[in-house]
Write a structure and sequence with these properties.
Its EC number is 1.13.11.20. It comes from Carya illinoinensis (Pecan). The chain is mainly β. It is 11% helix and 32% strand. A hairpin with a 4-residue loop joins β1 and β2. The chain is globular, with a radius of gyration of 20 Å.
Length: 251
C-alpha cells in the first residue's frame, strides 16, 4: 500500500525492531564450552527471516518462485494481532468525529531496498485510496476487523481515453481501462492476499468497515529512483464492457 507514515503507536512491542543482526565470522575468540539455550523464534522474527530469504534476489518486476510465495504466505497466515502487539481497542482505532477524515496510522516494522514490512491501522470508515504497486509483489494479511477491498488490473491492449472525453475541464492525462479483480468484504481471520506486478489486483483501495489492521509485505518497496512511484487513481464508471472501469491517474 502506498501511504507514508502518519504516526506510530508507542505501545507497539519493542520486539518489532529487534531483528537478527549479522555476526562477525572473523572473530578469533574461542567458542564457549557451554551455550545458553536459544530463545524460540518469535512470529515477527520468523516473518523477517522468511522475507529476507524470499526477496534476496528480488528487484523491479521480479516475482518470487511459487515455492517461496507459498512459504511466505504460510508464515503470514499464522500471524495474529498479539504477535505484533496490536489490539482493536487501541486509541488510534477509535471512531473519530463525523466531520473529521479518519486518520490512518502506519507502523513501519522494517524497510530495505529488497523488501518492507509495515502495518496499516484503520479506524472505522478509514480509507487507503486506490493506488498501484509498480513492479512489486505484495502480501496483505488482515490481522483483525473487517475491510472492503476494491482491486483492479489493467486491460491488456485496452483503449485509452483522454481526460477531455471524461471531463472537459481536465486535459492533462489519459484514463485507462481496468478490469475488476476484487470487490468484497473480508473479515479476520482470513487468508493472506497476494498481488503481482501485472495481475492479482495490482491497484487496490481499502475501506475499513470496522476498526482493522493490515500487515503488508512489499517486495521490493516503493522507490522513486528505481521507477517504483506510487500513483493514486480516480475511478470512472464504464458500462461498455462488463466488469471494467476507467482509472484516471491523479496529478
Amino acid at each position: 500500500m502506498g501511504i507514508e507514515t502518519t504516526r506510530a503507536d508507542r505501545k507497539v512491542n519493542k520486539e518489532l525492531r529487534e531483528f537478527p543482526k549479522a555476526t562477525n565470522t572473523t572473530s578469533r575468540s574461542k567458542p564457549r564450552k557451554s551455550r545458553r539455550p536459544q530463545k524460540k523464534t518469535s512470529p515477527v522474527q520468523k516473518l523477517f527471516q522468511t522475507c529476507k530469504e524470499v526477496f534476496a534476489n528480488g528487484g523491479t518486476g521480479t516475482v518470487p518462485s511459487h515455492e517461496d510465495i507459498e512459504r511466505l504466505r504460510a508464515v503470514l497466515d499464522k500471524m495474529k494481532p498479539e504477535d505484533v502487539g496490536l489490539s482493536p481497542d487501541m486509541p488510534c482505532l477509535r471512531t473519530q468525529g463525523a466531520r473529521r477524515t479518519p486518520e490512518i496510522t502506519y507502523i513501519r516494522l522494517y524497510e530495505s531496498e529488497k523488501f518492507s514490512m509495515g502495518i496499516f491501522c484503520l479506524p472505522p470508515s478509514g480509507v487507503i485510496p486506490l493506488h498501484n504497486h509498480p513492479g512489486m509483489t505484495v502480501f496483505s494479511k488482515l490481522l483483525f476487523g473487517t475491510v472492503h477491498i476494491n482491486s483492479y488490473d489493467w486491460v491488456v491492449d485496452g483503449p485509452s481515453y483522454t481526460s477531455a472525453q471524461l471531463n472537459p475541464s481536465e486535459t492533462t492525462a489519459a484514463a485507462r481501462l481496468a478490469k475488476v479483480k476484487v470487490d468484497s468484504d473480508f473479515t479476520a481471520p482470513c487468508n493472506t492476499s497476494i498481488l503481482y506486478p501485472a495481475d492479482g489486483g495490482n491497484m487496490h483501495c481499502f475501506t475499513a468497515v470496522t476498526a482493522c489492521a493490515v500487515l503488508d509485505v512489499l517486495g521490493p518497496p516503493y522507490s522513486e529512483p528505481d521507477g517504483r512511484h506510487c500513483t493514486y487513481y480516480r475511478e470512472f464508471p464504464f458500462t461498455s464492457f462488463s466488469g471494467t472501469i476507467l482509472l484516471h491517474a491523479r496529478v
